[in-house]
């Protein structure tokens, strides 16, 4: 029987509920329990796939091809449990399914209503796919009091009655602000938030109080009294030195102990935190540092490249170095050529990340060229690999080389699969059930060439599986001229038709990948491509 932990937020948004859920999951896991974490998003988009990265941060893609909220990335990085489509639901998806059923006549003429139809669908989602999990953590997006989250709160309230008495627990994350002028911590916002939650029929069992200043005993007792929880269940959650310090810190404050107690479990094994202590040690005690430039488009908002940012840090942990990331707007290189060298020269590694659209593409191509000519470690991811191929083609004499994503071109080095694949190739792929034209999403295999640089990086593997999110592919008609120019296609789709990885043997470290390796990197298990890239950057730092 899976136990359910419902996590809600109060007072303000941006309290780090996702990180808190991920940390609680990691702590329960460290005690030997099997966990899964789910996200309920109250907005009306069916999924975040079409939302701007500026608004919503990155879209996190799962193995099974779902485009999900970036919090699922936190969950996966902290627990190592692969997220699935069935771990993220939005109001949009609930309503879409209900309306489709209504149009089909499945409701047999009944009036379709928020209660019970929407709430039933939410409950069904929460209860689906329980497997042999000990705990399923459900994070509700937004803040208590939001109109759009009401059906989710109602579904939780009902579930708390329908499941066994010791099978559910409510954790409420709040803020205890510090008023500098008065020199005081204020508990009133927490009291109001708990009252709001109680008015929806949900009494929290554990309060996680985010604060910038230590919570004195008296304030803790006051919150306990006014919010109707025991004092030990008021957990102070002070700002941590880094996200990697959060699980251990929350454990010290008693979060997991109190959660287990709420379920009546008092004999759980102590958590094995060795993994987290090691991660923290590597992060907090680096033996050197490197500076990596990320030449992209959404550089104004770091959440837009959340997993990438994390994977670079993990690569640093693998090498025990601090990674300084310089976010560079590719467009600035299009305005003044002279800027390129001064911006890129101080870097020990250049990374061109995934992206969509033409804006900044010439700046990205110029960055590839700089990295290639100056022999600076280069890592191209998705769009970054496509730019590396276009740069190679232009160097090979195809001056018009481009991607059809940017408009019509006489040299479609990158294009939609039907635009460049032969009829025979298309037939083969259609028989295999994979035709382009829409996004290629989720995990796909790639075959690595023996004795290539990447097969070494992947520890001698001949087949790998990585996650994709793109519509365009490198046109295999250009493989031959590109190989003559020095690029090696060292990873291909298993049928040999789609380029997956390119590298340059005459360069210290030059790798382009059509997939997103950053989505699978974890602090305790850094992705080999990022570990290798940072290692190369470290060597570069010794040269300059
Ligand atoms: N825009 C490119 C494509 O759709 C690359 C996508 C990406 O980098 N994720 O193929």
TrEMBL record:
The protein's annotated pathway: Pyrimidine metabolism; CTP biosynthesis via de novo pathway; CTP from UDP: step 2/2
Positions contributing to L-glutamine binding: 54, 355, 383-386, 405, 471
Keywords per UniProt: ATP-binding, Glutamine amidotransferase, Ligase, Magnesium, Metal-binding, Nucleotide-binding, Pyrimidine biosynthesis
Record's GO cellular component terms: cytoophidium; cytosol
Domain CTP synthase N-terminal as annotated: residue spans: 3-263
Principal EC category: ligase
Catalytic activity: UTP + NH4(+) + ATP = CTP + ADP + phosphate + 2 H(+); L-glutamine + H2O = L-glutamate + NH4(+); UTP + L-glutamine + ATP + H2O = CTP + L-glutamate + ADP + phosphate + 2 H(+)
Stated regulation of activity: Allosterically activated by GTP, when glutamine is the substrate; GTP has no effect on the reaction when ammonia is the substrate. The allosteric effector GTP functions by stabilizing the protein conformation that binds the tetrahedral intermediate(s) formed during glutamine hydrolysis. Inhibited by the product CTP, via allosteric rather than competitive inhibition.
Binding locations of Mg(2+): 71, 139
Catalytic residues (UniProt): 382 (nucleophile), 516, 518
The Glutamine amidotransferase domain, residue ranges: 301-535
UniProt region (Amidoligase domain), positions on chain: 1-265
Molecular function, one GO term: identical protein binding
GO biological process, any: pyrimidine nucleobase biosynthetic process
Residues annotated to bind ATP: 14-19, 71, 240
PROSITE patterns in UniProt: GATASE_TYPE_1
Binding positions for CTP per the UniProt entry: 13, 146-148, 186-191, 222
Keyword Nucleotide-binding found: yes
E.C. number(s) listed in UniProt: 6.3.4.2
InterPro entries, alphabetized: Class_I_gatase-like, CTP_synthase, CTP_synthase_N, GATASE, GATase1_CTP_Synthase, P-loop_NTPase
Sites where the protein binds UTP: 13, 186-191, 222
Function: Catalyzes the ATP-dependent amination of UTP to CTP with either L-glutamine or ammonia as the source of nitrogen. Regulates intracellular CTP levels through interactions with the four ribonucleotide triphosphates.
Family assignment from sequence similarity: Belongs to the CTP synthase family.
Complex formation: Homotetramer.
Protein name per Swiss-Prot or TrEMBL: CTP synthase
Organism of derivation: Altererythrobacter lutimaris
Lineage: Bacteria, Pseudomonadati, Pseudomonadota, Alphaproteobacteria, Sphingomonadales
């Amino acid at each position: 029987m899976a136990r359910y932990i419902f996590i809600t937020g109060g007072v303000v948004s941006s309290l780090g509920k996702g990180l808190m859920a991920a940390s609680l999951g990691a702590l329960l896991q460290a005690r030997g329990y099997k966990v899964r974490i789910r996200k309920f998003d109250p907005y009306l988009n069916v999924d975040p796939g079409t939302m701007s990265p500026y608004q919503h941060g990155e879209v996190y893609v799962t193995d099974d091809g779902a485009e999900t909220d970036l919090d699922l990335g936190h969950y996966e990085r902290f627990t190592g449990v692969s997220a699935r489509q069935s771990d993220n639901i939005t109001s949009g998806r609930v309503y879409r399914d209900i309306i489709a059923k209504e149009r089909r006549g499945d409701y047999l003429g009944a009036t379709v209503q928020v209660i019970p139809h929407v709430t039933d669908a939410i409950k069904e989602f929460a209860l689906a796919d329980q497997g042999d999990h000990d705990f399923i953590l459900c994070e509700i997006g937004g803040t208590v009091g939001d109109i759009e989250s009401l059906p989710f709160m109602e579904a939780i309230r009902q579930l708390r009655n329908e499941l066994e008495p010791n099978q559910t627990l409510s954790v409420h994350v709040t803020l205890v602000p510090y008023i500098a002028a008065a020199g005081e911590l204020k508990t009133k916002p927490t009291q109001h938030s708990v009252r709001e939650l109680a008015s929806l029929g949900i009494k929290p069992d554990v309060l996680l109080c985010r604060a910038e200043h230590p919570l004195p005993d008296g304030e803790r007792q006051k919150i306990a009294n006014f919010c109707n929880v025991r004092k030990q269940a008021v957990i102070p959650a002070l700002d941590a030195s880094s996200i990697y310090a959060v699980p251990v810190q929350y454990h010290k404050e008693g979060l997991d102990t109190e959660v287990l107690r709420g379920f009546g479990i008092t004999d759980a094994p102590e958590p094995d935190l060795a993994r987290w202590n090691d991660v923290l040690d590597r992060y907090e005690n680096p033996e050197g540092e490197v500076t990596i430039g990320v030449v992209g488009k959404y550089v104004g908002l770091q959440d837009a490249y959340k997993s990438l940012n994390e994977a670079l840090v993990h690569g640093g942990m693998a090498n025990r170095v601090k990674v300084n990331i310089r976010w560079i707007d590719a467009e600035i290189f299009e305005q003044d050529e002279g800027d390129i060298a001064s911006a890129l020269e101080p870097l020990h590694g250049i990374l061109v990340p995934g992206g969509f659209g033409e804006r900044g593409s010439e700046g990205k191509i110029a960055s590839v060229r700089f990295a290639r000519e100056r022999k600076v470690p280069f890592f191209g991811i998705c769009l970054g690999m496509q730019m590396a191929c276009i740069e190679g083609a232009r160097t090979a004499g195809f001056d018009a080389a481009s991607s059809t994503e940017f408009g019509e071109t006489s040299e479609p080095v990158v294009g939609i699969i039907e635009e460049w694949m032969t009829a025979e190739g298309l037939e083969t792929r259609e028989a295999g059930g994979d035709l382009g034209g829409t996004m290629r999403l989720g995990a796909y295999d790639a075959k690595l060439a023996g004795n290539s640089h990447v097969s070494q990086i992947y520890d001698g593997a001949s087949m790998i599986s990585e996650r994709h999110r793109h519509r365009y592919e490198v046109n295999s008609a250009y493989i031959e001229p590109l190989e003559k120019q020095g690029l090696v296609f060292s990873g291909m789709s298993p049928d040999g038709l789609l380029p997956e990885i390119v590298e340059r043997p005459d360069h210290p470290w030059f790798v382009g990948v059509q997939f997103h390796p950053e989505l699978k990197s974890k602090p305790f298990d850094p992705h080999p491509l990022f570990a290798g890239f940072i290692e190369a950057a470290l060597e570069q730092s010794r040269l300059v």
